[in-house]
Amino acid sequence: MELPAFGGPMHSRIQAGACLHTEPSEDDLIQATETGLVCRRGNFVIDPWKETHTALISHAHADHARPVAQVYYASESSVPLLKRRLGENLDIRGVPYSRTFELGQTRVSFHPAGHVLGSAQVRVQSDSEVWVFSGDYKRDHDPSCEPFEVVPCDTFITEATFALPVYRWQPGAVVAAEIAQWWQDMQSEGRPAVLFAYSLGKAQRVLSELTAFCDKPVYLHGAVHPLTEIYRAAGIRMLPGLPIDLDDKQRDYSGELIIAPPGASGSTWMRRFPRASTGFCSGWMRVRGNRRRRGYDRGFVLSDHADWPGLLQTIEQTGARRILTTHGNSTALVRLLRERGMDAAALETRFSEEEDGDASV
Q1: pTM of this structure
Q2: Measuring CA to CA, which of 146, 200, 271, 281 is 20 to 30 A from 126?
Q3: Residue 111: is it exposed, middle or buried by C-beta count within 10 angstroms (0-12/13-18/19+)?
Q4: Which domains does the chain have, with CATH numbers?
């Protein structure tokens, strides 16, 4: 079956029951190896986890971006985040979304993934064969990053972080209203509200969503503040963010909202917020009992990954004849796709099943 021109109408599926369910092989355009997702025809590795020469990076989260390459290609808007996390002196080459460039025997382009600022799907074409590696992605509206773009392809490599029917998200504005109400309640009680959210992506999304409810400044943990300023420099509208002065032992944070990475929970850093109410912002909060087991007062269901309907919608819209899954609930998703007569299999990778693989505090 010949793939139509990129951007054209989607091609049809293999008929149910006719699928061979081919497993990953050495003949694939992109292969999962000990180094990362290797494209030998292009002489590059996507999101490598071992040393290599040329890397294509989907986004700046720690499980996808490591300082292991000599030359990096990434979306233009992700470069400041990558330099902050990997090193200012690295050779990181920013490419505008949708601009095609050649590597070896392939033509490559980056397309918005809607995950965090600068996150990208990687489209790789060799002759008439087109593969798309989605990286991490979401379909929900997010005012803090570029919206997801459907990219037609032959083979689609999709994440499966939340690939179970229980994971279905409310709009971000609805969750932001819950956070704003919690903050207001804590103001009335004279207590700090400490919200734990991943330092890259989730924290900035919360700050952006909250602009619909107030213009008050928010205090930011030292791991969150510099990344937030990169977002602000990129033109993302957010509430004002104030760094926490660690030397100011007398500062009273009663009634304030403080955003910190999950790693700060239970640490000595929390001693400066007596009587604090704590919340955790994550898709994992969708499962009853997670908030209680993790010891938070409040759980807010807000994810930067696609939910179950979003995964299925995206797989269908790509028109891909073959689906390969990475991390998360790959087994459940592959089983469902095969039951629907699709060619699907799992790829073994080192990408994290956590929401962003970011352990920094």
Answers
A1: 0.91
A2: 146
A3: buried
A4: 31-167+304-347 (3.60.15.10), 172-300 (3.40.50.10890)
